[in-house]
Amino acid sequence: MIVAKSLDAALIALREHDDARVIQGGTDLMVEINFNHLKPTTMVSLRHIPELRTITRPDGNTISIGSGVPYSQLEIEPVASVLPALAQASRTVGSPQIRAAGSLGGNLGTCSPAGDTLPVMFALDADIHLQSSDSHRTVSIHQFMTGVKRNVKRHDEIITAVDFPIIDGWQGYSKVGVRNAMVISVASACLVADHKSGDVRLALGSVGPTIIRCRETEQWLKDNASLTHNSVISPDIAREFGARASRECSPIDDHRSTAQYRRHAISILAARLLQKAYS
Amino acid sequence: MSMNEFYTLNVNGQPMQVQDSWVGESLLYVLRERLGLPGSKGACEQGECGSCTVLLDGQAVCSCLVMAATAVDSTIVTVEGLDAHGAELTDVQDAFVQQGAVQCGFCTPGLIVAIHHLLEENPQPSELEVKEAISGNICRCTGYGRIFAAVEQAVAVRKASRTS
């Protein structure tokens, strides 16, 4: 175990140990280990690295959230009023115990399509900071996630922060699961209505190998409803928006739900979010 | 599996040595099997039941999901280390006994820790806030009614002691 006290120390440890794995809160990784799916030999703990626990405003249009900031901090100010969809998504993660430990870095590192905060990153076009001992790069979330539990992070890199654009508009997140607390999503959706550009952006979770951005549905809405911040969405437009979104996803049957139910849930979630955005 | 981890944890105000352990061991395992603190219970091992709840740097977390060797330089409080202010039981434990909030008892230590944490942060929680605070602690016996009654009693006892 290497308990890193700084980002540099962690990056050097990763460079020097090919078998090393990083651990932040442990809420995903420890499940794998407890059930003998993973037998780590060298671990690098990121828990005591202050650089990963900061929330900054690098410029007026961006909020940058350290990869180790726990969800419990994302549910409240100063994040909640700037990124309400992220606050809502964070609020649905696990239980208070899980939210005190888990973080965006874990959601990104694991890259499960059911990761609660990933649709928010996809709808807001977030950027991911990746740092190695000798380089730094910023990757769009759209390029970062490549498949079920797959991403472009290299072994020698650490996810340090996520940059979210601050938008003038409405944003919201909804999720369907078997109960209210302590649930992994069956289907989830994040909708962003950017009042400046007039664009509506929709991203879906748990209904495909990656998070799905509904580009065709977004374009259809743009072509069929010229939206301003005080527009009213008719029930017909909302229904068609939901139906199109449900056709744009590619869910599967698994132990949590069926593809058919997931498609239905998406049509409802997308329609409701759109109506909420303009009510 | 090499057993070459040596480290010191600060548990209930005491430095405790962990020797010859494997890097992947959870804090729950180390507390129970290596440090002789079996109060925290292990059930789901995946963060769903809350019976292993401890305070880590003042936050209620599932000890089954904390890699023990990462918890060096942190303050750990288990159900054994909650401050009873010289009495045999803490006020929350006493309220659980008086209100009959215990049936099989397996979830009880986790609930006790979670409720202590809640009342430290929020001495006058609403019913909804209590439900939220223990939403990560699963009890399959009581139906929760008597647990809520116990929280209500603990809140009232603390309020009375503050005003007296």
Describe this structure as you would to a colleague.
The longest helix of chain A has 19 residues. The mean pLDDT of chain A is 96. Chain A has 2 domains: 117 residues, Uridine Diphospho-n-acetylenolpyruvylglucosamine Reductase, domain 3 (2-Layer Sandwich); 109 residues, 2-Layer Sandwich (Enolase-like, domain 1), CATH 3.30.390. Chain A is α+β, with helices and mostly antiparallel strands and 279 residues long. In chain A, a hairpin with a 4-residue loop joins strand 6 and strand 7. In chain A, 33% of the residues lie in helices and 24% in strands. Chain B folds into 2 domains: 77 residues, Ubiquitin-like (UB roll), CATH 3.10.20; 73 residues, DNA polymerase, domain 1 (Orthogonal Bundle). The longest helix of chain B is centred in the last third of the chain and has 19 residues. In chain B, 35% of the residues lie in helices and 16% in strands. By secondary structure, chain B is an alpha+beta fold. Chain B is globular and about 50 Å long. Chains A and B meet through helix 2, strand 3 and helix 5 of A and strand 4 of B.
Summarize the structure.
By secondary structure, chain A is α+β, with helices and mostly antiparallel strands. Chain A has helices at residues 7-16, 29-34, 71-74, 84-91, 96-99, 104-110, 118-123, 141-144, 215-224, 235-248, 259-277; strands at 2-3, 20-23, 42-45, 55-59, 62-66, 127-131, 136-140, 145-147, 150-151, 158-165, 169-176, 187-194, 200-205, 212-213.
Distance separating the two termini of chain A: 52 Å
Low-confidence stretches of chain A: none
Count of helical stretches of chain B: 5
Approximate strand percentage of chain A: 15-25%
Number of helices of chain A: 11
